[in-house]
Structure formats: structure tokens, C-alpha cells
Amino acid sequence: MRRSYKFLMRPTAHQQAALTACLDDHRALYNAALLERREAYKRSQVSIRYGDQSAQLKEIRAYDPDQAHWSFSSQQATLRRLDKAFRAFFDRVKAGRTPGFPRFKGRGWFDTVEWPEDGDGCRWNSQPEHPSATFVRLQGVGHVRVHQHRPVRGRVKTISVKREGSRWYVVLSCDDVPAEILPATGAVVGVDMGVASFLTTSDGEQVGNPRRLAASAEKLAAAQQDLARKKRGSKRRRKAVARVAALHGKVRRQRLDGAHKVANALIRRYDMIVHEDLRIANMTKSPAPKPDGEGGYLPNRAAAKAGLNNSILDAGWGVFLGILAHKAESAGRELISVDPRNTSRTCAPCGHVAKENRATQAEFACTACGHTAHADVNAAINILGAGLALREAAAA
């Protein structure tokens, strides 16, 4: 199986300047290749592809000494990144979705450079004889120290460098990673995702919603207000942008850490985990405006929906479910997703479905049989039942 490892880099001031220059030059190559494609089609109706632009790299490197400073393979990866953006654009056109033509990348929108193969312009663990530290060697940058907080398994295939705010990370994509199968426990569980509680199991356990973004709201508001007062292009504004990015980065890392811990706890305890097949992008759409026929609009509760959307995104359901899927695959656990419709309105004991069954956010009271329970626990039991039914149907 394939797995990615992400480690914090600790570059020196000189190496940090070199990494910044590397990003800037690769961004310039990306934008120049995009401009060439646009102009060729606009003027001559000619489509330029990756092979055409990759063949020009030797001439570009001979003409531009800045480009010649970096790995040839990493520049090819940048051109493939542009080609992938165009293929995704044409796929969206064919599917009838909003196309979204590839855009030029500004300084804050190009933060990753990839080396397609370990040993070609880069080398992981480039100083294996060092007694206590790990280094990655990057062409044009040198040996950069890495905070390796866990062992790397499998064969390192690709190496990427990513900038997040003022921090630098190295991301390793490894093939042939051995699975770490956990012993069977014989237990199964259904999981209901929520906002009041982040997660509720069919066993009746609840995991609170830490609301990471809400906890940092005051600091973020102050930092963003400070940013709004700064003049564009000034040094003070760049510092203010860095402060806002650092706060958002901290929230993101806290959310990831919490998701990993909850997923690990579930994977260790249960052989089969059933969750809702959530379409988070659809759930967080803004309501469409409703014209009143007189040049105005009818109330559509957009403000209330925006608050709910923020709570859903702050909970990080998508991040958690992605992490859970990877951990389940590695541990040999079974993960099933089920249709979430009516799971919160159905009585688990008798199966009666009615909107009135859910009296409040937390209380479930069946209008047919009188069964009462916590609404989220009742939903989790229904989710587990749907997952067991799917497994039986697949086995039949």
C-alpha cells in the first residue's frame, strides 16, 4: 500500500532563502507555461501539451541561469502539474460542471515543489551516518535538517517540499508500505457525526466537539483587523499576513491531531466501523436567493445557514473520515459508509419514520411505540443496522 509522511523541516536562514527562490522560480515556470498554452490557442488554435513544453526545458535552462539552478525532474513535475490542471478543466467541461480555467499563480498560491523520484535531484536521509538527526538533500538548497518524529516505512518514491505560513515541510510518498494488521476484537460500531457532539457511537459514547476555530476566533479577528489596516505591499502587511496564517495553521494542526486521536481509538476497539456517507460540499452550500418579484429578495435564512456551515467546517468531518479510511485500510479493519437519509428520524427498535420523532436536537421520542433515547445514539444505532444490512447483502 502507499502512504505519505509529513515532517517539519528546520532550514537555516540561507536554506530558507534558497527554498523561497526555488518556489518562486518554479512558479515562474508554471505561469510561463500557462501563458504559452493560452496564447498558442488564442492566436493559432493550437493546443500545446506536456510533451511539447517538457522538450523546451533544455533551451529554457540554457537561456535562464535561475532555472538551470534547480532539478530538471522537479521542473518536469511542475509542467505535469499544469497539464493535470488542464485535464481536470476539460473533464469538468465534459461533465457540464463549472469549468474553472487554470489560473496564473500568485506568490501565495504556489507553495509546493515535487521531486518525482528519490535520488533524482533529491535524497531522503542524505546523511545516514549522522548519530541523531535526519537530513534531506535538495538540489540547489543543500542538506536540510528534518524533524523526523516517526519511522518511515516502505520505499520512498516521491519527495515534495511544502511551505505553510513560515514553516517548511517535507512530504514523502512511499510505496510498498507494509500493513499493520491489528488483532480482531469482535466488536462493531455505528458512528453519527454531529455539531453539538463531534461523534456519537452506537454504544452510547460521545466525543465532544472542540470547536477549534471558534476557540481562536478572538485572536483571529484581532489579527485580521490589524491586517486590514496595513498598506498593500508594505513590510508590515507581510508580517500581518504571516500572523494570520500562523493562527490558521495552528487551528489546522489542532484539528488534525484531534482527528488522528479519535480515529486511532475507534480502530483499536472495533473490527467494523459504519459511518454516514456525508456530502459535505453539498451540506455547506449557501441557500439560493429568492426574488420577491418587486426587485428585492425574500428571507432565505442565509445568515443562520452560514453559521451552521461554519460549525460543520470547523468540526472537520471530511478530514476525520479521510484519516479514518487510511487507518482502517492499514489496520485491516472494515469501514462501511451508508446513506444518511432518515437515520435521525427512524426509531431504532420499531423502525417508525417520522419528522416528529425527533422532538429536540438531543431528544428522540418515537410517536408510534414511545421509545425514548438520545437522538444521536438512536441515529448511530440506525447507521450500524444499515451497515450490517449492506454487509449481509454483499455476502449473499
Automatic annotation (TrEMBL):
Single GO biological process annotation from the record: DNA recombination
A GO MF label: metal ion binding
Pfam families registered for this protein in UniProt: Cas12f1-like_TNB (PF07282), HTH_OrfB_IS605 (PF12323), OrfB_IS605 (PF01385)
Entry keyword Metal-binding: yes
PROSITE patterns reported for this sequence: PROKAR_LIPOPROTEIN
InterPro entries the UniProt entry points to: Cas12f1-like_TNB, RNA-guided_DNA_endo/Transpos, Transposase, Transposase_put_HTH
Transmembrane segments: none
Limits of the Transposase putative helix-turn-helix domain: 1-44
UniProt domain Cas12f1-like TNB: residue ranges: 317-383
Keywords assigned: DNA recombination, DNA-binding, Metal-binding, Transposition, Zinc
Family membership noted in the UniProt record: In the N-terminal section; belongs to the transposase 2 family. In the C-terminal section; belongs to the transposase 35 family.
PANTHER family the record matches: RNA-GUIDED DNA ENDONUCLEASE INSQ-RELATED (PTHR30405:SF25), TRANSPOSASE (PTHR30405)
Name of this chain's protein: Transposase
